[in-house]
Amino acid sequence: MSHEFFNPVRSVYGAGALSSLPKLLEGRRAAVVTFPEAHALGLVDRLQQLLGASLSQVISDVRPNPDVAELRALYETFWAEPNGAEVLVAVGGGSAIDTAKALMVGTADGRFGSLVDALAAGGSFVPARLKTLIAVPTTAGTGSEVTPWATIWDRGAQKKYSLHLPQTWPAIALLDPELMLSLPASVTLQSGLDALSHALESIWNVNANPLSDTFAVDAVHDILDVLPRLMGRPGDVHLRGRMALAALKAGMAFSNTRTALAHSISYEMTLRYGLPHGIACSFPLPMVLERAIGRDASRDAVLQRALGPLETAPQRLASFIEQLGVKTRFADYGVSNEQAEQMVAHALTGARGRNFIGADMKEAA
Questions:
Q1: Is 289 helix (H, G, I), strand (E, B) or coil?
Q2: By CB neighbour count within 10 A (0-12 exposed, 13-18 middle, 19+ buried), where does 126 fall?
Q3: Which residues pair with 152 in a beta bridge?
Q4: Are 253 and 216 in contact (CB under 8 A)?
Q5: How far apart are CA 66 and CA 153, in angstroms?
Q6: Domains of the chain (ranges, CATH numbers)
Q7: What CA–CA distance (Å, rounded) separates 278 from 261?
Q8: Cβ atoms within 10 Å, residue 181
Q9: What's the gap between Cα 50 and its chain centre?
Q10: What is the pLDDT of residues 316-348, one digit of tens each?
Q11: Model-level pTM?
Q12: What pLDDT digit, counting tens, does each position of 80-123 carry?
């Protein structure tokens, strides 16, 4: 059986790596896409000083979980007004990077609705215009800096769209753990658990391969070791760096497998119950692990490499997550047993749910 692994993103990382941004731009003009708090944190000022005349504009009104209602005006203004930018530099968490991925692909008519219509129809979409993307994550978790996917939400219609094109891979991932030192504890936790979910989801996955397994197992080991210590020492740049690399490894793993059942469950938990993504995709991990064990001998072997003896792995994983202050039962989030059973059954039929090695399972949660 042959395997294939593909990831075209150039990764640049290390404390102080942000200073290499002008060199990476290679004389091109850039538009920065970032989050509102970047002003108060001094990050916008730093980028302006660093980039100088290369900076064409700063888009700093990115909100968490970008919604079609918020993106429409931003997208259409960006493509309607000449700004001279050849490169988008996304500085922030997954929402900033996802927003930049939406902005980087221009429709022929400049309308955001044309992009959403194409995503909703599930057909092919070829951008009429394109910007290059440099992703600079300020959180350690989403892996969006090394994947082509962006999630676009439509809360009004209770839907989500996945944007993933050959053109939406970032050209460069620039990881500087110094940018993560000011992260609040809640974001540190949520992003770290998101990375753990990415790593495990790429193992219990029908698309897994030996290289994705290598990245995933390494990421799980690092996260289990680093995340609890980082929560107690948020100002430790060494731990921040290790967490950033763990999230990068997890991103490399699922960049080739995509996610699976836990993420499929998470979308409904976020839309219907308002759970932050990192919590929504991590609280069901012990339950999903129980379902995965025994399904495939080769996957069991990799899960054992990642988590140790499988007989007790679900309980130990639940304990790890709960010791970080996150409950691991549906009931803890106001979801009844009947609702949970229906949610899991529905999640198994979704695009991500079908990646799970136990997607043919019919029993209740």
A1: helix
A2: exposed
A3: 161
A4: yes
A5: 6
A6: 10-178 (3.40.50.1970), 185-355 (1.20.1090.10)
A7: 14
A8: 14
A9: 27
A10: 999 999 999 999 999 999 999 999 999 999 999
A11: 0.95
A12: 987 789 999 999 999 999 999 999 999 999 999 999 999 988 87
